[in-house]
Structure formats: structure tokens, C-alpha cells
Amino acid sequence: MPFDHLAARLKQRRQQHLYRQRRTTQGPQGAELVVDGRALLNFCSNDYLGLANHPEVVAAFKRGADDYGVGSGAAHLICGHSTAHHALEDELAEFTGRQRALLFSTGFMANLGIVTALLDKNDAVFEDRLNHASLLDAGLASGARFKRYAHGDVAALEKHLTDSDAENKLVLTDGVFSMDGDVAPLAKLATCCAHQNAWLMVDDAHGFGVLGPQGRGSVAAAGLDAQQVPVYMATLGKGAGVFGAFVAGSETLIEYLINEARSYVYTTAMPPALAAALRASLRLIHSEQWRRDKVMALAARFRAGAGQLGFQLLPSDSPIQALILGDEARAIAASEKLLAQGILVSAIRPPTVPKGTARLRITFSAEHSEQQVDQLLSALEKI
Ligand SMILES: *Cc1c(COP(=O)(O)O)cnc(C)c1O
After folding, report:
1. Class of domain 55-287
2. Is the CB of 142 under 6 A from ligand 1?
3. Is the pTM of the predicted complex or chain greater than 0.85?
């Protein structure tokens, strides 16, 4: 039979507690989620600021659909680039303090498009070991020489850079690491890249909107400018609560990517109504500091409570809190025990995280209350 070998691999996955399955939710994102008709407390979404179902964002999306219809009709370079996309790009450039910004349909596509456009086989790419899968895949797909350095280890990176005689060197890092929640040593990375004549690209999927002044992200929080971090990329489906991604940088960088990034050129533009919704979301990110203050205060409350209960969390200055349990079966059992108490927390297993570091990845949102955090703590105490 065709695909028998795939069935065998799936069976093996199941035995290793690595089988992945989807959960079907009903209704919008929020502090509570309805799953199989049952309301659950949600501690696994990336909607850190509570914007995914914000009335102003929803209203802008509806107006966008009235103004532009649903489909964008074509790629940006054909006839799919609308005034809504263009205005959002201008606002993102201004917000991130760079000359230009360029929208991509997803963060995965942005990373793939940017890195493969910037590098070829005469070049070299250097990546933190815990970078997101899309950055690792993008580096591999570029054909450039590929080096990974130990997590956050700038000295190890410096050594790799010194040893390299590549024409162009690109250093890639998550701004906030997606599964650990810690922030990359961005200032040190920038200094190292300047010494070594390498370009630094930061993927700020989990920092954009959440960290820095007015939510301008981890690079702004570190006080770094467009010279020090010439390629700033972030996603718009997490803190911004909508969908899509962008890269911000110099005029030359953006014009080059418009011409050369294959996942930009050869794909349909995102629906303009999403861009309209994102413009509303960006205004809220900018003006509502209380959302950042609240989500960080909730994460701090959780860390203090978890410490009192004797739980060891990974270091984190973000709404992402990781409780390492080690083996896969343990992580799944913990997640299931929380579910039995009406709490949704996902178990994250290899290969998403390194072997032996299966974990509960707990995330907070400005939509949560202190009382809900306490509920999570008392549920954790029972398991
Ligand atoms: C989620 C994520 C992406 C992918 O973004 P999508 O828009 O979901 O495709 C890229 N990089 C990091 C660090 C992420 O966490």
C-alpha cells in the first residue's frame, strides 16, 4: 500500500509520546477558550496583548472588507497591493524607526524570503541553537555555510565569525526566544557583528508590541538602531493579534527584497482587510501601555507564585514562561492533568525544543485577571 512507511512512522511517534494533534476551538481567542463545548482557561495563546478579538480591531477588519472586499486578487507586484497595505507599511516603518517596511503573508514566509534573498553559497549564516524553525530552515535553504552557536553564547558566535572567510555573514536570532521566553543578548550581538563586519537580523515575533517603549520591540528595548540591526523582522499574528509579518530596514534592503524574495514575489497578497485591522491594532499597541504593564505584572505574579510552590521556571522577562519537565510523557501528563481542571496549557516536545527539555509553555495575556493566574497556580500545585 502507498504510504505504509508513513503509517509506521506515525505509530512510532505515538509510542514516543511525540504524536501531534489539533484541538478545535469554538469562538474567539481570549482568556477563556471554548473547546469541545467546554470553557477552558487559556494559557497557551500568543495573543499577549488581548488584541485578537478587540472590538476596534474587529470593526476595522469589517470596514476593510466593506472597502476592499475579501480577496486581494493577486500578488503585490501584479495588482494585489492596496492602499491599506501601503499605509500599514508606512506606519510600521515609522513605528520601528526605519526607512521602509515590507509586509509578508506569514512570518515563516518572511524569514524564508529574506534569508534566501540575502545569501548564497559564498556566504555564511550563523544562528542561535534555539532559533525558531523558520529561521533554521531559511538558513539551510539559502545554501550558505550554516553554523549554529550555543544559546545566547556571543563568545562562541565571535569565534565562528573570526574563523569564517565568507563574503557576507548574516547572524540570525530570535529577539525573544519563542519556547523559553528569554531575550537575546542583543546589545552584545550587535557589538560582535560590528567588530566582525556581519549583518544582524532579529526575528521579533514575540517582542513586537510587547517589549520596548510603546511596544516597539526587543531591539528598541535594547536601545539599538537601524545601523546596528539592519534587518528587523516581526510577525503580526502574535502580540499584534491579527496575521502576517513584516521586515523593516533601509530603502535598499526593501527594494531588493521586493525584487528578489521569492516568497514575496510569488504569493498572493494578504487580504487588505487584514492590513486595515492591523492598522487599528498598531494604534492600540502604541497608545495602550497598560496592556504591556498588565501582562508583565501577571507573568511576574506567576513567577513569584511558582517559586513559592517550588517550581523552577526558565529565566524570562516576557509573557512566555517555561516549566521544564524533561521527558515527553511527563509533559503530556501534566498538560492533561491541567486540562482535567479546566486549564489549557500546551506540552511542548522535541523537535520543537531540544531532547530532554519537554515542557509546559505557559503564556499570559493582558486579558487575564490576577485571579485566573492564581487559579493556574493552585491547579499546578495539585499536579
Ligand atoms: C511564530 C514565529 C514565526 C512564524 O510566524 P508566522 O506568522 O506564524 O508564520 C517566526 N519566527 C518566530 C520566532 C516565531 O515565533
Report:
1. alpha beta
2. no
3. yes
